[in-house]
Design a protein that fits this description.
Distance between the termini: 87 Å
Shape: elongated
Radius of gyration: 28 Å
Largest sheet: 8 strands, antiparallel
Number of helices: 2
Order of helices and strands: HEEHEEEEEEEEEE
Strand content: 25-35%
Number of strands: 12
């Protein structure tokens, strides 16, 4: 009788252990699935919608400073057209390095720098960011006509920016534009609109 009781207790204990393992295994599988789903959603969000980027250098001073954290909207240009004055994140040809500049001219525009002034479609561009003028005209010394899906970009800090004026950059192809800079983090660690 005692042996039979021991056998029943052993069976009961094995069932109890099996039941105790199931919830742990279920919890572990749910945890792994949650992590996987979060990673997939994060990848989709960063790849197709928004991304953070840190400003490197002073070419966009006074609008953006070295070390500023910005948010890039990748979806913006799926809905709207890129326009003059937009601040954009640009991928260099090799696709590794990102830079931030302002769109000075869009496809179909003519661009030239004459006497330190930016001329687009024969008219002087009156943007406050270019009030200091351009010491170096570079490629824009002669009139440039932008082809389809080509953009002429400039840094706001016109004296310290390598941009479309330089032959190693030139006109930017639309495929190299990652998105529009929409927000930057200020001194109080709050995100504010960028213009």
């Amino acid at each position: 009788m005692k042996n039979r009781r021991n056998v029943v207790e052993i069976k009961f204990n094995k069932e109890k252990e099996a039941n105790a393992k199931k919830p742990f295994l279920t919890r572990f599988i749910n945890f792994v699935l949650f992590i996987f789903l979060a990673a997939v959603l994060g990848y989709i969000f960063v790849t197709f919608f928004y991304q953070t980027l840190q400003i490197n250098g002073s070419s966009m001073e006074k609008t953006l400073s070295d070390g500023d954290m910005v948010i890039v909207s990748k979806i913006e240009y799926k809905i709207k057209k890129i326009k003059q004055g937009d601040i954009i994140a640009v991928r260099e040809n090799k696709g590794v390095y990102y830079d931030v500049k302002r769109v000075a001219a869009v496809p179909g525009d003519t661009v030239q720098i004459i006497g330190g002034k930016l001329i687009v479609n024969g008219k002087k561009v009156d943007m406050d960011v270019y009030s200091e003028g351009f010491v170096y005209a570079g490629l824009a010394d002669k009139e440039i006509t932008l082809k389809n899906k080509e953009y002429f970009i400039l840094g706001d800090n016109t004296k310290n920016s390598i941009d479309s004026r330089y032959s190693n950059i030139g006109n930017i192809q639309e495929t190299n534009i990652i998105g529009k800079i929409i927000l930057k983090r200020d001194e109080e660690k709050k995100f504010v609109k960028v213009e």
